[in-house]
Amino acid sequence: MEYPGDRALSAWHIQCIIQTCGLYYNPVKQGRINKKRVRSVTRKKITDLERKPRRGFLVCLDTVVRYVHGQKRYILTAIDRYSKLAFARMYTTHSSANSRDFLSRLYYLLDGKIENVQTDNGSEFKKHFDTTLEKLDIPHYHSRVKTPKDNAVNERFNRTMEDEFLSLGNLAADTLYFNRNLTEWLIEYNARRPHQSLGYLPPLNFHFKYHKVLPMYPSSTIY
Predict the structure, then answer these.
(1) How far is 34 from 17, CA to CA, in rounded Å?
(2) What is the pTM of this model?
(3) Which domain holds residue 160?
(4) What is the average pLDDT value for the chain, to the nearest integer?
(5) How do residues 153-194 score in pLDDT, each as one tens digit?
(6) So what's the pLDDT on residue 212?
(7) 28 in a domain, yes or no?
(8) 89 and 104 in contact (C-beta within 8 Å)?
(9) 12 in a structural domain
């Protein structure tokens, strides 16, 4: 008696099986998979970082997305986890090149006093952004996926910016106009607004309490 397993499969049958099961090798797709695997292995998790109470030890970044008259705008935000000194800037595109620009401005503002950086896993915090961090020798730590509490300090700043600036009629599609007004608000937030968690000191006073003061003026940001 002849069993089905005894019959030789034709080349046509083999091709049908390969196509049905998706077994063809795709070098482009496989390359993307390999890169993801490498990133998942090398990516530092914020839970692995032992926190230290000093200014500049950990600076947290995030992106706030807003629509203005049908136009999408991205506001990058950053805050020193210890001193609560904050910075923000609007961009028209969601790119790692703009995140690099933001990081450079932030680095200048903090006089290079950044030991570690924390972000989520967004694409804007890869490529050019990561390359700049490597040049500056700043470790990059990532929040866990769908875990807002990993970056709670930045989340609170984003809410404050929403309540005390954006929702008061300051949201505009013109990035030049918006960033000028945002800088003025940041001066108020950092230099004059008391924070309960800082003993009712403004972040700038607390940040430079025992150091030479470096005021945040509009001239500190190039438009």
Answers:
(1) 25
(2) 0.76
(3) 59-220
(4) 86
(5) 999 999 999 999 999 999 999 999 999 999 999 999 999 999
(6) 47
(7) no
(8) no
(9) no
